[in-house]
Design brief:
Length: about 220
């Protein structure tokens, strides 16, 4: 018997795990399940002076507004349990997030009736666009906590968006502003070949031709 070969056969892959048949319907086509939490973003992890941190609300609103972290933390908090799906082909089941549901925040913002889209602004000049209709799903939230703990700096501390039903690039980390818009406008990845809508169950990965991302791209990134 070749011991090394046996050991390798038995060794569980560190990043990718088997999907239970009963849960297979929750894994979108072309995705691999992981229990770890890959870290993906452009640029450096930002550093904040929390007293100066603000979330800016602008665009098609009656009055521009700014919220401090403290103001947001005193608002109604909710918990969401959801699966997340990254376009680089990893999915993670049963993630728990705590924060403010967008549907609870929206009525406080004085948004003009003409507004139909948002641009989420985030640090390192990141932007991603979404229809307000999508933002109003029951489980879309501005999250302070992941798995009961404050977000780690690499996962978006102090505040990130979580839009579970779309590929995870729509879930901007380090958000700084929400711009309300009459017309849609593409964000960072949406201008760079990714799909404008991004439904993982319809495999809306790219807007034009396949960008040829290697299937195991995500296995080389940083994990928590
Ligand atoms: N501000 C900001 N948010 C971002 C990104 C980014 O580059 N900058 N990358 C997006 C992409 S492509 C993914 S897959 C997720 C990854 O989140 P995670 O690092 O917490 O897994 O963050 C999204 N949010
Ligand atoms: Mo991503």
């Amino acid at each position: 018997m070749n011991n090394k070969a046996e050991r390798l056969k038995k060794a569980k892959p560190i990043t990718q795990v088997e999907v239970d048949a009963a849960l297979a319907h929750r894994l979108p086509p072309g995705q691999a399940l992981t229990e770890r939490f890959p870290i993906l973003h452009e640029g450096e992890v930002p550093n904040y002076s929390l007293p100066d941190w603000r979330l800016r609300i602008f665009g098609e609103v009656e009055n521009e507004m700014e919220f401090s972290l403290e103001q947001l933390q005193t608002m109604k908090q909710s918990q969401v349990l959801c699966d997340i799906h990254c376009v680089t082909r990893w999915s993670k089941f049963d993630t728990t997030w705590d924060g403010i549901l967008f549907k609870d925040l929206l009525p406080l913002l004085g948004v003009k009736p003409e507004a139909r889209y948002v641009m989420i602004h985030a640090d390192n000049d990141y932007e991603t666009n979404l229809p307000i209709e999508d933002m109003l799903n029951d489980n879309v939230l501005l999250a302070f906590l992941f798995d009961g703990e404050p977000l780690t700096p690499k996962h978006g501390y102090p505040l990130r968006l979580v839009v579970p039903h779309l590929y995870f690039w729509k879930s901007a980390k380090w958000i700084t502003g929400i711009e309300f818009m009459k017309e849609d406008r593409p964000g960072f990845w949406e201008r760079n070949g990714f799909h404008n809508v991004a439904d993982p169950f319809r495999e809306e990965r790219f807007s034009g031709e396949d960008l040829g991302l290697p299937e195991d791209l995500w296995k080389d990134v940083d994990f928590d």
